[in-house]
Write a structure and sequence with these properties.
This protein is mostly helical and about 290 residues long. The chain has one domain (about 1-210). It has 7 helices and 5 strands. It has a 3-stranded antiparallel beta sheet. Strands 3-4 form a two-stranded antiparallel sheet. A hairpin with a 2-residue loop joins strand 3 and strand 4 (about 245-250). The longest helix is centred in the first third of the chain and has 52 residues, at about 55-105.
């Protein structure tokens, strides 16, 4: 069936985005692992297993930790910059393919659609995302530094052997890795979502009646997103997201960390046919 081909295309888009997010997270975690090795190596270098930390040693270790975290932040900025550019290119390419494929399958004739990739790249939202990511990495780096400082200071106060302090520091750094992975994947997904949204807005200038639709692409029935699946909004519209007692309005996915949803381009005639074939559930269009 034509709709199956369309849905297969959307699933393929999702896989490409997931691959981008995973690759970016892996690169960032490699940088983090290298930072961990540098910090632990320096701790071992300045002490021996039977010597308690001194104030001088503490100052030296913290100075070296700051240098290591500074390197981590620089690498993270480069990694995210590349991922952001890839996300924008992917979104522009995919929204054009998505609209053309859907129109050829579900309408009488395919649309000839061209998108301005430069417009997507110049979107101010991209700069905001980049700044947000940069500040998040800086806070993350500071968190690592504070954990190292705390462990070393406690070891100094209690007179613990240096090897024990090193082990405590190593465990503290390892514990921050899941935070780093979530940070990278969420920010990369946000960059893709913003670029996809801008691309749909550009396409709407050429395709009368084009809207955007929320698609929940995971088998996991997320309490935050599942009710949004299949709901439409005008290009400048928003969805209301409820997380616990808090609510917020979003113009595009992701709705929360590790969100797998996407916002796609849609026309009323496409959605009606997809519903008729059983690919979209009946949903409430309210909740702006």
């Amino acid at each position: 069936m034509p709709a199956r081909t369309l849905l297969a295309t959307l699933r393929d888009h999702s896989k490409q985005v997931a691959k981008l997010e995973t690759a970016t997270a892996d690169d960032f975690l490699k940088a983090l692992k290298q930072t961990e090795a540098e910090i632990v190596g320096r701790l071992y270098a300045v002490t021996d297993s039977d010597t308690a930390f001194s104030t001088f040693t503490l100052q030296r270790v913290l100075a070296e930790v700051k240098a290591a975290i500074g390197t981590l932040e620089a690498k993270a900025g480069d990694i995210y910059g590349v991922a952001q550019q890839d996300a924008i290119d992917l979104a522009v390419e995919q929204v054009s393919s998505e609209i053309t494929r859907a129109s050829s399958l579900l309408d009488d004739a395919p649309l000839n659609l061209s998108l301005d990739a430069a417009a997507g790249m110049s979107d101010p939202a991209q700069a905001l995302l980049a700044n947000h990511f940069e500040s998040s990495v800086q806070r993350y780096g500071l968190d690592v530094l504070n954990q190292v400082r705390r462990k070393v200071q406690i070891g100094m106060i209690t007179g613990d052997p240096s090897r024990q302090v090193v082990n405590e520091v190593q465990r503290a750094i390892v514990g921050t890795r899941p935070q780093a992975e979530q940070l990278v994947r969420t920010e990369t997904s946000s960059a893709y979502g913003a670029a996809q949204h801008r691309s749909i807005a550009e396409a709407a200038k050429q395709v009368p009646g084009l809207k955007k639709m929320w698609v929940h692409q995971s088998s996991y029935k997320c309490d935050v997103c599942i009710d949004l699946d299949g709901t439409e909004r005008p290009i400048d519209g928003t969805w209301t997201i409820k997380i616990g007692k808090k609510t917020k309005k979003v113009a595009h996915a992701p709705a929360h960390p590790n969100c797998t949803c996407r916002v796609i381009a849609i026309k009323p005639s496409w959605k009606d046919k997809l519903k008729g074939l059983g690919y979209l559930d009946s949903v409430d269009e309210d909740g702006e």
